[in-house]
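Quick one: structure tokens for this chain, please?
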Amino acid sequence: MSRMSFEESMKRIEEIVSELEKGEIPLEASLDRFEEAVKLARACQMKLEKAQERISKLVKSEDGFTLEPLDESSED
């Protein structure tokens, strides 16, 4: 599961949600799918956090341009 790309994980979560919404699978299988979706969602969250750490913004200063971490609170 952890070897899945972000996009593959999101697609699998969508498939699971679709299966669960139909309500056609037994309870135990539904619980298994739900647990799988939660694990995938956690993995996706971790990937998003890592990606956010890598994002930087270019800022003009007196010495030219510098890269700074992206500030979530800024509205640039």
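The beta strands are 56-61, 64-69.
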